[in-house]
Amino acid sequence: MSESFDLIVLGAGSGGLATAFRAAAHGARVALLEPGALGGTCVNLGCVPKKSLWFAAQLAQDQSRARAYGFSGTSGDFDWEHFRLRRLAYIDGIKQRYDERLQEAGVVLLREAGRFVSRDTIATTSGEELRARQIVIATGARPQKLDIPGFELGLISDDMFGLREQPRHIAIVGAGYIAVEFASVLRALGSEVTMFIRDRLLRQFDNEMVAAMCEHMARSGIHMVYGAKAKGLRRDGDALTFEDEMRGDWGPFDAVLWALGRVPHSDRLDLDAAGVMLDDKGYVITDSWQNTNVPGIAALGDVTSRRALTPVAVAAGRHLADRWFGGMADARLDYDDIASVVFSEPPLAVVGLSEADANTRFPGQVRVYRSRFTPMQWSLAGEQGRSLMKIICVGEDERVVGMHVLGPGSDEMLQGFAVALKMGMRKRDLDATVAIHPSSAEELVLMR
Ligand SMILES: Cc1cc2nc3c(=O)[nH]c(=O)nc-3n(C[C@H](O)[C@H](O)[C@H](O)COP(=O)(O)OP(=O)(O)OC[C@H]3O[C@@H](n4cnc5c(N)ncnc54)[C@H](O)[C@@H]3O)c2cc1C
Ligand SMILES: NC(=O)c1ccc[n+]([C@@H]2O[C@H](COP(=O)([O-])OP(=O)(O)OC[C@H]3O[C@@H](n4cnc5c(N)ncnc54)[C@H](O)[C@@H]3O)[C@@H](O)[C@H]2O)c1
């Protein structure tokens, strides 16, 4: 006999946990299946360990800035392994709290993978069967691999967090969020970094912002090779050679990171047994309410083709649980104008449209404001780098449809502006706001 629940959630990552907690708070009896670590990618192999390294990179930069300010003494070397253990202890604490909270909420946690037997029945790895009228697929994604010789000699992003030593000279293949973040952080911590970029950096981002980001990366000493096409990877002793189809061999490197995007975890779920449809890349097809084509089965987070960000998975899960179990018939996530930050050095924060996208959507109606300046804390240290801020407005009344900030503090700066943008802010609202001085953020209300 199979055990019955109101809701079965596959995956205890950002999206699955949020769905399970919210549904349980509404009184649903929930089973949550997770074969790996609680918290999924974000907590274990994504945002949290990545941001930890970014904080370390900030400290490394602050140490050299401190000398320019007049602090005496030499800065200490970075103990990579010490910090890995400290990070793990922090992450263990998060997972322990999740475990406790799930128990308190009465969610039944099964530390196993699930697969569909029919549209309302899930089988666990150990052969147990669970039934529910409603099922959520929140199984996330994994790093993309290439079928080329020697691929396995390189690392994927998951491996980066388990390294016992900091790479001395790393090649990073790819040019998305993950490639740029690791390149920046490792460079700030002292590694030599060479990036192999197929076409352009951060292709979803505003061209001008990306060009400014490239300037910072080049100035920091990151070597960028454009037009690269990976042919293979070769090991000679400790040295790795990256074989580029276009320009031959590059190296030696002591590590190579493949950062080529991610593929959805939809292939081991026996979705055919339930009739759930996938798109040609393997993402579960959903409508804007997270519904799949099968009534009672929803999907959210990285296993769908929406923005692959933790707060997106979390918000989608909460709205879905509110609708299914909280009586909120209209609850659903609005996918427009979602802010995000590339945790590079300096960070790049974005909400809304790029200039190019705005021109496509609103031809002839776009007005762009921009500000380029050297932030005070850099200037004081004699550094030349400049921040770039852009505000994209449309129409006679200059509705703000995009805000872009590259510079120190941008990671914390844009959240509040994202609220205002979503509320329909006009440029005149920024003009009517008195600046906080002296700050970098004040530029956003002072642009003419
Ligand atoms: C290096 C890196 C850095 C990132 N940094 C950021 C950042 O700074 N900010 C941000 O917003 N986003 C960031 N992301 C993206 C973010 O981590 C993801 O968008 C988010 O984790 C997606 O959540 P999810 O619940 O969809 O999937 P996941 O968190 O991946 O969780 C899916 C879970 O499902 C489990 N699972 C798989 N198959 C089954 C099965 N058959 N049965 C049961 N369970 C199963 C998996 O073990 C996993 O735990 C980063 C990602 C990476 C890789
Ligand atoms: N700070 C954040 O919020 C953050 C950080 C990391 C990841 N993420 C999320 O995770 C997602 C995945 O990140 P990602 O960096 O893996 O993917 P991505 O889609 O951002 O970038 C993938 C990169 O790989 C390149 N690429 C793909 N195939 C290639 C090939 N054969 N040869 C050379 N280059 C190739 C692409 O050109 C692109 O530059 C992101 O889209 C983002 O949503 C967010």
Describe the structure.
The protein is 33% helix and 25% strand. With 448 residues, the chain is of the alpha/beta class. It has 3 domains: 2-53 and 79-143 and 263-325, FAD/NAD(P)-binding domain (3-Layer(bba) Sandwich); 151-260, FAD/NAD(P)-binding domain, CATH 3.50.50.60; 346-445, Enolase-like, domain 1, CATH 3.30.390. Strands 1, 2, 3, 4, 5, 6 and 16 form a 7-stranded mixed sheet that branches. A 5-stranded antiparallel sheet has the order 17-18-21-20-19, with helices on both faces. The chain has a 4-stranded parallel sheet with strand order 10-9-8-14, covered by helices on one side. α1 runs parallel beside α4, α3 (47-69) crosses α4 and α3 runs parallel beside α6 (177-188). The radius of gyration is 24 Å and the shape is globular. It starts with a strand and ends with a helix. The mean pLDDT is 97. Residues 10-16, 33-36, 40-42, 45-47, 50, 113-114, 138-140, 157, 178, 265, 268-269, 301-303, 308-311, 313, 343 line the site of flavin-adenine dinucleotide (FAD). NAD(+) binds at residues 174-181, 261.
In CATH, the homologous superfamily of the largest domain goes by the name FAD/NAD(P)-binding domain
Helix content: 25-40%
CATH topology of the largest domain: FAD/NAD(P)-binding domain
Helix/strand class: alpha/beta
What value does the Rg take, in angstroms?
Answer: 24 Å
What is the CATH-assigned architecture of the largest domain?
3-Layer(bba) Sandwich
Distance between the termini: 70 Å
Please identify the top-level CATH class of the largest domain.
Answer: Alpha Beta
Number of strands: 21
EC number: 1.8.1.7
Enzyme class: oxidoreductase
Pfam families: Pyr_redox_2 (PF07992), Pyr_redox_dim (PF02852)
Binding site for NAD(+): 174-181, 261
